TrEMBL record:
SMART domains in the cross-refs: GGDEF, PBPb
Protein name per Swiss-Prot or TrEMBL: diguanylate cyclase
Catalytic activity as recorded in UniProt: 2 GTP = 3',3'-c-di-GMP + 2 diphosphate
GO biological process, one term: negative regulation of bacterial-type flagellum-dependent cell motility
Length: 477
């Protein structure tokens, strides 16, 4: 009756309240799901300790326990559909027998037909080798070795693309991948830390170790829902959002623990557990150490040494990501190219140390003028690039003008006055990074030709949703 009442109230409201109707979809779905049959879903039947199917068709493992929390807190009953293997689970969701997949990474290929919740569980992928193998700080530097992977994993295509120096061998299961390394038939495998520790413990492959960590290869495991089920996605995502970090950790620890099947005296048990404990602790120590080193290297690789801002490589990465998002969702985005006026004369007159200090202080000034969502970096020399997501040309123009005025009024070292020229260009459908940068550079070139110390908007950039503005801003004399 509550669901019927809610439905009558929603239908009775004016249809122009689209936001309210959009909000009601998941609520109505939740009420309907409570009243109706359990939602069928599919899982990987052989992926312990993440998930597996028991002989009687019961979903078990970390994913099953997390889904039980989602079900309880969202009010949606769930029912696992047994399958023979992962490929059959995927096929069952495609043909509608199941409405979602329980635990998987998001990839561009999967996004073509699935929509994803926020991560249920995040776990790093690690390189597992035999005990005698050297620790791997840089996988790109390892040539001629063999990596074994289970079929159908999300990392296979990426590893093949990013590490062509490796020979890839595919097997049918996680256990077979570890066995292949343990028996010397492959040099390494790349699997999740949780699965690696679990497998080494339970299968007794104590000649294996964790020999490295790949930054950016973390498993962000999510629920993947059919794209024609937006209401179900919203309800499940809300349930995922209620799960705390402590609950995730408790569930993972419960499934990775060693299960002793027969009673043993304390001394015998201690001796049996000493070796695997030493292997796991040593491996975890090196994983943590490698993660810290790699994090420092990652930050250094993305940061301009002098100013502490993003460097050109990182700007390219962020710009590509923001352009893809703007294109996918039809959102505005703009960039601002800044050049410090007559900077060569500053270096020639005062020296490069003084010039470097001007660059550093401009970086600090830009950080104060910009919003938290903007990204500013050093594009090269005395040029800086500002990326402005969710920003049309008018707003980007105003932002550049604010920074220009702050810069013009600022006391640089020794009372030096430094101005800048600004070129603004908005993202257009079909733009490449190069095309967008060329338009911003052309606007910057006009600003310099027209006398410097001014903001110029790219020719032809008109934002009909924003107040009319001049395409050129310069200081009042």
């Amino acid at each position: 009756m509550m669901a019927d009442s809610m439905f009558r109230r929603m239908v009775g409201r004016p249809l122009q309240l689209l936001g309210a109707i959009g909000l009601a979809v998941p609520l109505l779905f939740g009420a309907a799901a409570q009243a109706g049959e359990a939602v069928p879903y599919c899982a990987d039947p052989d992926w312990p300790p993440y998930e597996s199917m028991s002989a009687d068709g019961k979903h078990q493992g970390i994913a099953a326990d997390l889904l039980a929390l989602v079900s309880r807190r969202s009010g949606v009953a769930l029912r696992a559909v047994p399958t023979r293997d992962w490929e059959e689970s995927i096929a069952a969701v495609r043909d509608g027998r199941c409405r979602f997949l329980s635990f998987l990474n998001r990839t561009p290929k999967r996004e073509e037909w699935l929509a994803f919740t926020e991560p249920l569980f995040i776990d790093p992928n690690v390189l597992v080798t035999r005990e005698g193998h050297d620790y791997i700080a840089d996988l790109a530097a390892v040539g001629g070795e063999t990596m074994v992977l289970p079929r159908g994993t999300s990392v296979e295509e990426r590893v093949r693309r990013e590490f062509p120096n490796l020979r890839i061998v595919l097997v049918d299961s996680e256990a077979e991948a570890f066995a292949t390394v343990s028996r010397g038939m492959a040099d390494m495998t790349l699997r999740s830390l949780t699965v690696a520790v679990y497998t080494i413990k339970t299968a007794g492959w104590f000649n294996l170790k964790v020999a490295g960590h790949l930054p950016g290869y973390e498993n962000a495991l999510r629920i993947g829902v059919r794209k024609d089920e937006p209401g179900l996605l919203a309800v499940l995502d809300r349930g995922v959002g209620t799960i705390s970090t402590a609950e995730r950790t408790s569930i993972a620890n419960r499934h990775v623990a060693i299960q002793v099947q027969s009673p043993l005296d304390a001394w015998t048990l201690t001796k049996l557990l000493a070796l695997p404990a030493a292997v796991v602790l040593t491996s975890l120590f090196w994983v943590v150490k490698l993660m810290r080193v790699n994090e420092r290297l990652r930050v250094q690789s993305r940061t301009d040494v002098l100013t502490g801002l993003a460097n050109r490589s990182h700007l390219n990465e962020v710009c590509r990501s923001e352009m893809e998002r703007a294109a996918r969702y039809g959102r505005p985005m703009s960039i601002i190219l800044v050049d410090l006026d007559h900077f060569k004369q500053v270096n020639d007159r005062f020296g490069h140390v003084f010039g470097d200090q001007v660059l550093v202080e401009f970086a600090g000034l830009a950080g104060k003028a910009l919003r938290a969502t903007d990204t500013v970096g050093r594009w090269g020399g005395e040029e800086f690039l500002i990326l402005c997501p969710e920003t049309g040309p008018g707003a980007a123009f105003a932002l550049a003008e604010r920074l220009r005025r702050m810069m013009r009024a600022y006391d640089f070292p020794n009372g030096h006055r430094q101005t800048g020229s600004f070129g603004v260009a908005p993202f257009r459908d079909g733009d490449s990074i190069d095309r967008l940068l060329i338009r911003a550079d052309n606007a910057l070139y006009r600003a310099k030709n027209e006398g410097r110390d001014r903001v110029v908007l790219d020719e032809g950039s008109v934002d009909l949703t924003e107040p009319a503005l001049s395409r050129t801003a310069c200081p009042a004399d």
